User: What shape does this take?
Amino acid sequence: MGKILCSTRGGDASIRTQKAAIDLALSTGDDLIFFIAFDMEFLAEADFNLRSDVVSEEVDKMCDFLMLMAIERAEAKGKEATCLVRQGAFVKEIEKVVREEGITLAILGRPEGHASRFALHQLEELAEQLEADTGVPFRILPEE
Assistant: This one.
């Protein structure tokens, strides 16, 4: 039995990714771990005073909430799942998690519309880079 890591965020596109990952884990019998990373580096660019510890704590709580929703989606379909929330740069953190958790397949969400951080070709390049760096396949879901 393998371990599927589903990288996710919030929003409709992420929910579709989560559902595709749940269906895949159900069909393969693999364990399922939802993953989210948040980076607080943006605070260095803020033009006003913020207590970074307070902002970080609030963002962490929001990520926990998003992960609990993903776990509930899995449980509603009869699939147990766990989650990992990490603070730091996404690429660095996902590579660490893949290695630490013995992941056998990692899933990235398909970009949709203007809210996406990446265009599809950029995400495909990132997936190839991550796969080369970790030796673990990265797949973009849901498929078209």
